[in-house]
Structure formats: structure tokens, C-alpha cells
Design a protein that fits this description.
Layout (H helix, E strand, L loop, with lengths): L1 H18 L17 H8 L6 H10 L11 H13 L4 E5 L5 H9 L5 E6 L2 H13 L6 E5 L2 H10 L6 E6 L6 H11 E10 L15 H15 L3 E6 L5 E6 L1
Parallel strand pairs: 1-2, 1-4, 2-3, 4-5
Antiparallel strand pairs: 5-7, 6-7
Length: 246
Amino acid sequence: MAIRIKMIFWIGLAVVLTGVGKSAFIGKSHSKGKDDPVLQYVVNNSLREHPVLTKLRLRTLEDPWNIMMVASEQAQFMANLIRLINATKAIEIGMYTGYNALSMALAMQVNGSVVACEIQDTYVNIAKPFFKEAGVENRIDVRYQIAMKTLNELIAAGEAGTYDFVFIDADKSNYDRYYEKSLELIRTGGIIAIDNVLWSGKVVNPDPSDITSQALDALNKKLHKDQRIDLSMLTVGDGLSIVIKR
């Protein structure tokens, strides 16, 4: 009960902080929200970034696809969720350069582990030296293959119902499949965090020709009706849904 109360507090705080301003949707602090004074105030007065995370964030900003990086304020929020539920087993579906995987690993105790799914070797090669520098390379198991293969392997290995936290941030057309596998892999009371659920606002009356927006809108509506979970949709970053397995 105490854990659930604390969780409600943190989620409520995130809604308050990101809902202030001209619009409920601001964006990420390193992209669309970088010129928003309210979001920058939030970052300047709340972000506590590990030195290696700072280095990795700055390195990632050199990549032309840096929009894919999880916002630092969002990563810190999820790290606090990991601390809140004392997570020791996590999965990241879509690692990119590893900023959030590193953030999660640093939030865990020494016995914690993160299975990080990524299919681009360029990004894996960027991430690994930073994992080593932070001293958590043994906590991050990078699976360089299609995420669905990794998820199926984990289930086949008897790990269903044993994970505490899953973060979904990969190809949007497969979000529903990732969600169902994640729901199978996490324990009761475990958390699934789903990124980009607002998709720059395009999920509101999505264009019929926009497959990505259609897929995200369909998933959002599915989650709203799903009685297997408790749900909050937040305006953090590009939209973040927090799912708690019942």
C-alpha cells in the first residue's frame, strides 16, 4: 500500500510539472521543448544527471537521429520508478545509444540487470564504452537482434512473470505485440512504460494514411479499456504511458 501511495505521488507530480504552460504537450528538453521556459525550469531545478549520463547525452546529440533519445527528465522519472519498486530485472525494447538503459542500471542495486534490445550495431558500439565507464557493463545485457526474438527467448527460458520493469521505445507498428509480450514477462505490480504515445500530438484524429499514428492511437485506446492493468498517460517527453500489471 505504501509503495502504491508513493507511486501515485510521483506520477501526479510529473503530471503537474509537465502540464504547466501554454500547452499540456511540450516535448523533449533536447528537441521540441528546448526553447520552452517552463520545461527548462523543470530541468534546471530537478535534473540530477550522473556524470557518465551527461557524457552519453552529449555524445548522442552529435547523432543526426538524436530525437530518438529519451529525454533526460523522462529517464530520471523512470529511474525513480525503478527505485520506488526496488526493481532488479528490467527490459528495454529499443536501446538506441543506451542513455535510458544506463539510467536504469544506475538506479538499480548491484544485483540488478537490464536486458537491452537493439538492432543497430552502430548504436550498440556507442553505448558500450559508456556502460563500462559507469561501472555497470555487467548489469546491462545487450541483445543485438530483433526485439520480438529476445522477448520470446526470455519467455521460453521460463522468465515469464519475473521482470519488474519494461520500457517500450522501438518501432511503433509493433508496439501492441511488444506490449502483450511485456505483460507476460512482468510480475503482478510490475510496470511497463510506453514511450511516444502522443507522437507530437498526431494521435489526436490521426491521418488515415499515417500508419504510425494509427497504431499508437489504437494502442492507447486498447490500454484505456484493458482490465488487466492500471494506467496513467503522462505528457512527459513525447507522451509516456505508465502501465501497472494487476
